[in-house]
Recover the amino acids of this structure.
């Protein structure tokens, strides 16, 4: 069983428990449910955009604890002040140390920036839940979803006024997963089945395979400004970076210095 298999098995149980604890009717009463969304596409296409999607992540299955000494409010506010184009906040608890409360705190602290709910989405309930938390962007991971499920979940995302980021790792996942409900394609340089890669080869290999009309972003394994320059040269508009900043004492300052080097 791969790491991803373990995460999805755990997530399936978690979602069923959540459904019993908080009904959809209650989620729809959230003050965030009716809020206008902040568009990731618009942000990335802005000529003044840094394109950096800064992530708040306490730990990962491959690295363990990354940073347990900072708050989500100070980190995400620092990211926005430094020039992030979007915020990504982990809400998976068991494997990544995140929570819905982390997302809510980041949302309240930073109302005007696009926010991605970073989790393993497998059920319509989670999409509605994300809307109630104030999410603007939903992550759908091709490695753990069938093409039919991607269409079904993507349709609901669109109906609720949010945007869908489809995450792929190789050409096979890309070809079987693209559909009309996808707003942005993200290439995860780290294979979720083994968390092994430490380079951006996947992004470079898929750069000309992603249709030209779709915004593409590169995710993970980005630690140097020179890497972003390379990725921009092959058409990438966004760059999701977490551990590079989170492993420092002041992630917001680390992002500021990173952008200055760009």
């Amino acid at each position: 069983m791969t790491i991803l298999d373990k995460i999805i098995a755990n997530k399936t149980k978690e979602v069923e428990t959540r459904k019993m604890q908080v009904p959809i009717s209650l989620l729809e009463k959230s003050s965030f449910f009716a809020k206008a969304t902040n568009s990731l596409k618009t942000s990335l296409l802005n000529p003044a955009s840094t394109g950096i999607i800064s992530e708040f992540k306490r730990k990962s299955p491959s690295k363990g604890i990354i940073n347990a000494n900072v708050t989500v409010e100070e980190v995400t506010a620092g990211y926005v002040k430094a020039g992030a184009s979007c915020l990504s906040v982990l809400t998976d608890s068991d494997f990544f140390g995140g929570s819905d409360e982390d997302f809510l705190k980041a949302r309240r602290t930073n109302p005007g920036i696009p926010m991605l709910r970073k989790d393993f989405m497998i059920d319509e309930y989670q999409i509605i839940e994300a809307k109630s938390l104030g999410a603007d962007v939903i992550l759908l991971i091709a490695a753990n979803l069938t093409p039919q499920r991607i269409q079904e979940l993507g349709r609901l995302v669109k109906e609720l006024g949010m945007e869908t980021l489809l995450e792929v790792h190789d050409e096979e996942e890309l070809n079987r997963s693209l559909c009309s409900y996808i707003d942005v394609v993200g290439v995860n340089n780290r294979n979720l089945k083994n968390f092994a890669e430490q380079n951006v080869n996947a992004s470079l290999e898929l750069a000309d395979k992603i249709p030209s009309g779709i915004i593409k972003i590169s995710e993970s394994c980005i630690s140097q400004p020179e890497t972003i320059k390379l990725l921009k040269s092959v058409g990438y508009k966004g760059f999701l970076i977490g551990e590079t900043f989170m492993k420092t004492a002041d992630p917001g300052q680390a992002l500021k210095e990173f952008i200055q080097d760009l």
